[in-house]
Amino acid sequence: MIDVLVAGGGPAGLATAIHAAAAGMEAVVVEPRPGPVDKACGEGLMPTGAAVLRSMGVEPDGWPLRGIRYLDGRHEAQAAFPGGRGLGVRRTALHAALSRRAAELGVRVVPGKVTEVRQGPDGVRAAGFRARWLVAADGLHSPVRAMLGLDLPGRGQRRYGLRQHYPVAPWTDFVEVHWAADGEAYVTPVAGDMVGVAVLTSRRGGYPERLAAFPSLLDRLSGPPVTRVRGAGPLRQRVRTRVAGRVLLVGDAAGYVDALTGEGVALALLSARSLVRCLRAGAPQAYETAWLRLSRRHRLLTGALLSARRHPAAARLIVPAAHRLPAVFAAAVRALA
Question: Which chain positions lie within coiled-coil regions (predicted)?
Answer without folding.
Answer: none
